[in-house]
Amino acid sequence: MAKTHVTMKVNGAEVEGLVEPRTLLVHFIRENLGMTGTHIGCETTHCGACTVDIDGMSVKSCTMFAVQADGSDITTVEGMANADGTLSALQEGFRMMHGLQCGFCTPGMIMRAHRLLKENPSPSEQEIRMGISGNICRCTGYQNIVKAIQYASAKINGVEFREAAE
Amino acid sequence: MIPGSFSYHRPASVADAVKLLSDLGEDARPLAGGHSLVPMMKLRLASPTHLIDLHGIAALKGISRSGNNLVIGAMTTQHELLASEDVAKAMPILHEAALLIADPQVRYRGTIGGNVANGDPGNDMPALMMTLGATYRLEGAGGGRDVAAADFYQGAYFTALEPGEILTSVSVPVPAAGHGYAYEKLKRKVGDYATAAAAVVLTMSGGKVATCTIGLTNVHETPLLAADAAKAVIGTSLDAATLKKAAAAAEAIMAPAADARGPVEYRKHVGGIMVTRALQRAASRAK
Fold first, then answer.
1. Where is the FAD-binding PCMH-type domain (chain B) (predicted)?
2. Are the beta carbons of B279 and B250 closer than 8 angstroms?
3. Which of A26, A93, B24, B215 could make a disulfide contact with B127, Cβ separation 3.0–4.6 Å?
4. Entry pTM
């Protein structure tokens, strides 16, 4: 099948490549661009490990073709650190609250939480849980992931983070 | 899991899309949000040789008022439905149901047109559209036509869409002011299709049900209107005996498939419970 030339902005840089129409966006990001932070988990649109941010939307990149992303502005987990290389509030939250166990789901969790906090900078615990309902953690649970997002929300809003009493 | 090879087309107008579909024949498929089709292609359960991506057609997007109807472009996403003030005010049941579809990432991409046109019995919007009395606009090489949602579904994945036709918009009459509504969906987990779901839109007068429509999701190979169940509650105050009668009337027309969501009897049983709950919640919201 003839390949198509695509260009897009990924983490602020213009990139281009040749793709078959059937090339999934997640494969383009991982294989053509060499950015392996975006993970392939279930491959069936359930687990959310492949979540990236496209033109202001959280998207499961295993369920979109690279050719459809031609001309898009994409952020992956590699683009999440601050400009000076320090960790963003969300990354810091996942580190400080230990919002991970094996870490496989973490890039997708961070990318989804990134868009959630853009749309709602002060989500309730319930809103966080609904907001990340398309991201599955198979290790243990969501308690510390929720705390990590609450930590980031507090930091973004310039207030002190207090853990809720158990 | 990588789909088979296909040619990709991105028309800029409905006319171009229709022309491509009719020129390329039966192996061409329109691509909307893709959250049903792309997974099917990865599993090689679908292998279209041409994909006609509708994302480049601006005319298929947006929500507008036309008289007493809300006209929703086929490529309007569930996320956009949830963000719409018009939808929240005029038909909050649409908001309630959209929030129960899949998960946030899927709702950013999933479209109303894809949801209603695919003919998947598990999709939530078809029964809702039947309940609301919606009409679908279909465009083909020979021109356009309108088909009532209630006449559109002929079997699992079989609809009134003719080869070469595209569903371009959904026109939904705004329900009466003060109406009560509820979409009750039982599912195993967030993101799942319904084990059974029921949509109710009703009006009350003097403590009694004046008008009522009930739709059912995923309890048959097509979405259903439970007309006898609706008839059973009109003129009543939804007392326990009436609710029981309505649930039984709804269960009588259900014919779900046994699957991982449960055996037939279970799915019918919980389908009746969804009807009961939706009726009660809708009545409690009616003004």
1. 1-177
2. no
3. B215
4. 0.95
